[in-house]
Amino acid sequence: MGKVSCDITISLDGYSAGHHQTEERPFGDDGGDGSGAALHAWMFDAPEENRAEIARLNTAGAFVMGRNMFGPVRGAWDRPWNGWWGDDPPFHAPVFVLTHHPRAPRPMAGGTTFHFVTEGVTAALARARAAADEGDVTILGGATTVNQYLTAGLVDELRLHIAAFTLGSGTRLFDGVPPLNLRQLTSRPTSLVTHLTYRVLP
């Protein structure tokens, strides 16, 4: 069976998004235009020096994300909208979206299909494991979703990309998560971000 990893970019003070997410501003009050450009500049402004981490992002056999990572809390959920990911999302694998709102699966170009799971984090992970077969499963976020999986003890590996700025408020990683026993596996700084990988110990 493959491992379960969480892979998430956060600010130096631990936030994965600002408050007030909307369809037009997926990262809310993120200190910029709400596009997440500051948080994820390491991917787009410095791809060469972060090549290994970018290449690893979408290599899992299946993915899990929270509803807010698929689309905003308000405004677009009940209409036939494909979320923030465009017609050809980067995953090219099954993606299981945690939600309280049932919705039919949404197949996309490139092999991505969004499946909407209303039974909670354990059910979503079980479906992702089955879809991945023997492959890995990646929990993408946002922070609230990662926190639920960490709290439930369902994570084998935690991959953090810590951007070199602070947000001050928003959705924060580790909020409400009990103390974790971690072993650092890798640490690599680049100009815009520090990449950290931890094994989550029992």
Radius of gyration: 16 Å
Terminal Cα span: 18 Å
Mean pLDDT figure:
88
Class based on secondary structure composition and strand pairing: alpha/beta
Along the chain, the helix and strand elements come as: EEHHEHEEEHEHEEEE
Number of helices: 5
Query: So, the CATH homologous superfamily?
Result: Dihydrofolate Reductase, subunit A
As for the CATH topology, it is Dihydrofolate Reductase, subunit A
Adjacency order of strands in the biggest sheet: 5-6-4-3-7-1-8-11-10
Q: The biggest beta sheet, please?
A: 9 strands, mixed
Residue stretches low in confidence (pLDDT < 50, at least 5 long) are none
Number of domains: 1
**Helical content (DSSP H or I, runs of 4+):** 10-25%
CATH architecture: 3-Layer(aba) Sandwich
Q: What is the number of beta strands?
A: 11
CATH C-level class: Alpha Beta
Shape designation:
globular
Pfam family, one: RibD_C
Domain Bacterial bifunctional deaminase-reductase C-terminal: 3-188
InterPro entries: DHFR-like_dom_sf, RibDG_C, Riboflavin_Biosynth_HTPR
Protein name: Dihydrofolate reductase family protein
